[in-house]
Write a structure and sequence with these properties.
By secondary structure, this protein is an alpha/beta fold. The chain has one domain: Purple Acid Phosphatase, chain A, domain 2. It contains six helices and twelve strands. The strands form two sheets. It has a six-stranded mixed sheet, covered by helices on one side. A six-stranded mixed sheet has the order 5-6-7-8-10-9, with helices on one face. Helix 4 runs parallel beside helix 5. The structure holds fe (ii) ion (2 copies). One fe (ii) ion binds next to loops.
Length: 241
Amino acid sequence: MKIAAMGDIHVGPKIPAPVKDAFASVPRHANVLVITGDLTNHGTPQEIAICIGLLRTIQLPVITVLGNHDYESGMHEEFGQQLRDCGIHLLDGNTCEINGIGFAGTKGFCGGFTPHQLMPFGEQDIKDFVEASRSEAEKLYHSLAALKTKKRIAVLHYAPVRATIQGEPEAISPFLGSSHLEEVIDRNKPDLVLHGHAHHGSFEGHTREGVKVCNVALPVLYSKGGPAFAIFDIGNSDSYE
Ligand SMILES: [Fe+2]
Ligand SMILES: [Fe+2]
């Protein structure tokens, strides 16, 4: 099965032309579309309506997670409901199965990477922040563990490893992802992890246990000279085009 993947499409008052083109051509290249969050710029009702309109144009199963930008206007729950109402598989600690391939996912959160990740020490605000990060990782763990399919794909917005944020300023790395996600990925060992968020990051990396991780944020795909989606052939030597 061929999976088209893209992230950070950031739909605003206007849909970026390459995104429009990608939605028109993806069905010729893939059986399913995965979008790794930041569907909108600010998650406003207007942007949500435009994004839903775009998603309705595609005649493929679509799997997505929300990104931090989709939370900006506090409309994320309404956005999620609208996505589900139009048949989109929104992953938030749950799973779906398409053509025998299992998908599990959640937004994820930040907090940094070992050995420099934020620890739950001191003020309650810090402990709450770290708990938010751990809670997202737990959601990923349980959803991956629930999948019984031979092939399993994890979908995130935030990065689980440092490798795919390489290219971003080191100072902001704690805000781009969390090693808590890597820990639960390595306990479950899915076949592939897709994420976005790090616009200036790198396309491919691996967890400590060797699980392949790909950052499909649009600017990363463009920097490779490719179209606004990457294609993964899963089940057929798991290749990348
Ligand atoms: Fe983004
Ligand atoms: Fe983001």
